[in-house]
Design brief:
two-stranded antiparallel ribbon; 8 strands; 4-stranded mixed sheet; globular; GMP Synthetase, Chain A, domain 3
């Protein structure tokens, strides 16, 4: 028997030999004490966007962090909060949105969430209406 491998992956055991991958622990957003899994939120709304996007976080004085939506697009896409409300519970809905022409990626093509988010200036984030 081998020792368990320690990772930052979040899983849910389905049975004794199968699991469902839920996301990464280091991506979890703590917003007012609620733990938000950005990858689960992304999967619920992925059909709404024609381009790549991520749910990430920004610091917030009241809640600690807030969930925000960062979309890879040359031009702004009109997004209504009411569209997101159809698929997300209230506390999962991103509070702001911004657009980035190109995500920063690793050599293997994975989006570097923190680095991409930090490219957006404070005034680049717009509240969702």
């Amino acid at each position: 028997f081998e020792a368990p491998l320690a990772t930052n992956d979040l899983i849910q055991l389905v049975d004794g030999t199968h699991f469902e991958w839920l996301g990464r622990a280091d991506f979890i957003i703590n917003s007012g004490g609620l733990k938000l899994n950005p990858e689960q939120i992304e999967s619920k709304i992925s059909h709404l966007f024609p381009s790549k996007f991520i749910v990430t976080s920004l610091p917030d004085e009241r809640l600690g962090s807030i969930a925000v939506l960062l979309i890879e697009s040359e031009k702004e896409i009109f997004i209504q909060k009411s569209d997101l409300e159809k698929y997300l519970v209230k506390f999962e809905i991103p509070k702001k949105v911004a657009f980035i022409t190109q995500f920063i990626r690793t050599e293997s093509g994975k989006i570097m969430r923190k680095e991409s988010t930090s490219k957006i200036k404070q005034n680049g984030w717009k509240s969702l209406l």
